[in-house]
Design brief:
The complex is a heterodimer of chains A (166) and B (420).
Chain A: E1 2-7, H1 16-19, H2 22-25, H3 31-35, H4 46-49, E2 55-57, H5 70-78, E3 82-85, H6 90-99, E4 102-105, E5 116-120, E6 125-128, E7 133-136, H7 142-149, H8 153-160
Parallel strand pairs in A: 1-2, 2-3, 3-4
Antiparallel strand pairs in A: 1-5, 5-6, 6-7
Chain B: H1 5-14, E1 23-27, E2 30-34, H2 38-48, E3 59-62, H3 72-88, E4 91-93, H4 100-106, E5 115-119, E6 132-135, H5 138-147, E7 149-153, E8 157-163, H6 172-183, E9 192-196, H7 198-202, H8 205-213, E10 222-224, H9 229-238, E11 256-261, E12 268-270, E13 278-280, E14 291-294, H10 296-299, H11 302-312, E15 322-325, H12 330-338, H13 341-348, E16 351-352, E17 373-376, E18 392-395, H14 398-407
Helix pairs in contact in B: 2-5, 6-8, 11-13, 11-14
The chains are: A alpha/beta (166), B alpha/beta (420).
Chain lengths: 166, 420
């Protein structure tokens, strides 16, 4: 599947306040409205450039800070298919897979904004077509793969009446 | 093989022996949400299609992040929370009760050895009273509300030993800022931290809560401490639940062991816009500030208000500074009234606002203007955190914040040595 890379100006330690500011998340409940304000405090023009199916590209410790689920929710509503980062903070990591937003951990240094990407989750590869580079993705834990396959944790829970990771 | 506190508490709640790296489904003793996260908890709970909560005595909601409501959007969320609490007969701490991370332990909802989930990242606070507590998102919380359970990956643990007697004017806030500077904002990601050592043992429970509160600022899942006599006395005075003090085995296996000697530590300040961007206060003295804030789940407790009141007594807030104070709970507010701290604050020119998160999350009660700087006792100084991306936030202890409010510049509290 082809995706367009959207690289953030700030790469490391992008916290969930930066994904969606408390100015909005405390008063706006509609994810589509929230999506208009993503990354406003660090890159005000960013939200307008996102199109459906894009892959967000970041550095270390993406999604640190607040537990706000509005962060992955707003990224998904904005149209992002996945986030590729060198590493993720743990609450954001759970929240994203719970909502069915794909997270891949890999080297992101060489991916530029606008590069065309191929993402092969089962094969564990992220390919940058523009550069002709292929990056290995850190294996996604089986629990997370299961949640993705079931369409998020709510659907998983409904399907099995609880957790089923067997 | 020896076990860490995290391995033991999670094993006890999974009904089988676990070690770091294992994934298990565990029963949860208590869970909660606040007004920034409960709206999605309610939506997700409804989507699960269940018509009952697993145990209404093991859940509550707290309206603290924007309390009282500053706008219509927030008012609608508060209304939704009250209606949900009414429909399922659930506990709700409404506006003015205080900050969730003060109320949950203070009201006796949690005790030593418990496993707790909160839809708030600073849920790690109760590690100080030997609770494995961690923050999750709203949908995870909704699943626990429906089933009483969730899945956990057992974390590895970093052991942090703190030794040395703290100098005058140096507090637990300075200790944790110093540790975060060293470990960095992601140095403990996916891991638990155990804090121990003579400095921790000498601290009150209030002081320890400040340290565990900030464990998440280095990425940690939990910031655990063992339960000593002080902790057991503290929880027994507040909770009817039977404590299960849980200590690490001497042969427990750690991902790393770090030792800090704080006997010569100076007051610490985190600079904009990262919590691990920390300096000695002396390196920043003279930096102009427009607002000072004492409060939050990090430093809004009685001892924090006392430290600020001792410095403010008979002094005046600098004419160019707004000094906002938010007690962490109604009970702390009342104690502070009885002890005369509130009178000291008001007479010196401070503004005391309702118990709650106050201006920390930038929704109300002191949003900064463009180019302004604040010094705050909170736990985060991210760009825009206090409501304006064009402002600057410094984090420090209550004594450093109060000292700075008097001069209008970042000031070393040791200048008031007879007031510390």
């Amino acid at each position: 599947m082809k995706h367009c890379a959207r690289r953030l100006k700030v790469q490391d330690n992008v916290n969930t306040d930066y994904v969606i500011s408390g100015r909005y998340k405390f008063k706006i409940q509609d994810p589509k409205e929230l999506a208009k304000h993503i990354f406003e405090d660090i890159d005000p023009e960013f939200a307008a450039r996102v199109t459906k199916g894009d892959v967000l590209v970041a550095g270390e410790n993406f999604g640190c800070g607040s537990s706000r689920e509005q962060a992955p929710q707003a990224l998904k509503s904005a149209g992002f298919y996945a986030v590729a980062a060198k590493s993720f903070a743990r609450i954001f990591y759970r929240n994203a897979f719970n909502l069915g937003l794909v997270l891949v951990e890999c080297d992101t240094d060489f991916i530029d904004d606008g590069d065309e990407l191929d993402l092969d989750i089962d094969g564990g590869k992220l390919k940058d077509r523009a550069k002709g580079l292929v990056f290995d993705i850190k294996p996604i834990p089986s629990v997370m793969k299961r949640l993705l396959r079931d369409g998020g944790v709510v659907e998983h829970f409904k399907k099995y009446g609880g957790f089923n990771f067997e | 093989m020896g076990k860490t506190i995290a391995e033991k508490i999670l094993s006890n709640h999974a009904g089988r022996e676990l070690k770091a790296g294992d994934i298990a489904i565990c029963g949860v003793d208590f869970c909660f949400g606040q007004d920034g996260t409960s709206s999605i908890i309610i939506d997700s709970f409804r989507k699960l299609g269940v018509n009952r909560v697993f145990d209404k005595s093991r859940f509550c909601m707290v309206i603290d992040h924007s309390a009282p409501s500053p706008n219509i959007g927030v008012s609608e969320i508060h209304k939704k929370m009250r209606a949900f609490a009414g429909a399922f007969d659930l506990g709700l701490y409404d506006i003015g009760c205080g900050v969730c991370h003060q109320l949950i332990p203070q009201k006796g909802h949690v005790t030593c050895g418990d496993l707790v989930l909160g839809a708030d990242s600073h849920t790690c606070t109760y590690g100080a009273i030997n609770v494995f507590s961690t923050g999750v998102g709203s949908t995870d919380l909704a699943i626990t509300l429906a089933s009483g359970k969730n899945w956990f990956k057992v974390p590895e643990t970093i052991k942090i030993i703190v030794k040395g007697k703290l100098p005058k004017g140096v507090y637990s806030k300075d200790v944790i800022l110093h540790i975060i500077k060293d470990i960095s904002a992601n140095g403990a990601t996916y891991k638990a931290v155990e804090f121990c050592g003579e400095t921790i043992s000498a601290m009150s429970v209030d002081e320890r809560l400040t340290i565990s509160n900030m464990a998440v600022e280095m990425g940690a899942k939990a910031g655990l401490m063992e339960a000593d006599e002080k902790v057991l006395k503290w929880v027994k005075e507040r909770s009817f639940k039977t404590p299960h003090p849980t200590a690490a085995d001497p042969a427990a296996k750690y991902a790393a062991v770090k030792t800090y000697d704080v006997s010569k530590l100076a007051p610490q300040v985190a600079k904009p816009h990262a919590v691990d961007n920390v300096s000695d206060v002396t390196a920043l003295s003279g930096t102009r500030i427009d607002q000072a804030y004492v409060g939050t789940c990090t430093n809004g407790r009685l001892e924090d208000l006392e430290a600020a009141a001792r410095i403010m007594k008979g002094k005046s807030v600098h004419p160019d500074v707004r000094f906002v104070i938010a007690p962490a709970s109604k009970e702390i507010y009342l104690d502070a009234v009885r002890k005369g701290f509130i009178e000291i604050f008001i007479k010196s020119g401070c503004i005391v606002v309702a118990p709650g998160c106050g201006p920390c999350v930038g929704t109300h009660n002191g949003v900064l203007a463009d180019g302004e700087s604040a010094i705050s006792t909170a736990n985060r100084n991210f760009k825009g955190r206090m409501g304006n991306p064009n402002s600057f936030i410094y984090l420090a202890s209550p004594a450093t914040v109060a000292s700075s409010a008097i001069t209008g510049r970042i000031t070393d509290p040791r200048e008031h040595k007879n007031r510390l």
